[in-house]
Amino acid sequence: MQKKKDVRQFVLCIKNDGYTVSLEVRKVYQRLPDAAAEARHLVRVIDESGEDYLYSEDHFVAIDLPQAARGVFAHAS
Fold first, then answer.
1. Measured by CB atoms within 10 angstroms of the end CB, which terminus of the chain is less buried, N or C?
2. How do residues 28-43 score in pLDDT, each as one tens digit?
C-alpha cells in the first residue's frame, strides 16, 4: 500500500520589511495553496500570529524539506 504524498509546501523568510512583528527572517513557514493570491505574486503563509495572511512573494524562497522534517515544521507553524 502506497503512502499518501505529503503536499505541504514550505518557504523560508528572507526579509520582513514592514512586517517585523509578523515575520521572522530565516524562519521556515508553511505555505498554503491560494491560486488567486499567487496570480498576484502573493504568498499565503501561517505567520507569527498563528493565522494565515498574504505577503509579497519576494519575502520568501521556496524550500524542499526532507520528509522526516515536514511534520516537525508543520506543527511548529
1. N
2. 999 999 999 999 999 9
Alpha carbon separation from 39 to 3, 12, 42, 52, 57 (Å, rounded): 31, 20, 7, 17, 11
Q: How far is CA 21 from CA 6, 17, 34, 62, in A?
A: 30, 10, 23, 21
- What pLDDT, in 10s, does the model give residues 8-66? 789 999 999 999 999 999 999 999 999 999 999 999 999 999 999 999 999 999 998 88
Amino acid at residue number 49 = S
CB-based burial label for 43 (10 Å; 0-12, 13-18, 19+): buried
CB atoms within 10 A of CB 23: 21
In a domain, 4, yes or no: no
Indicate the pTM of the whole model: 0.80
Domain at 45, CATH number: 2.30.30
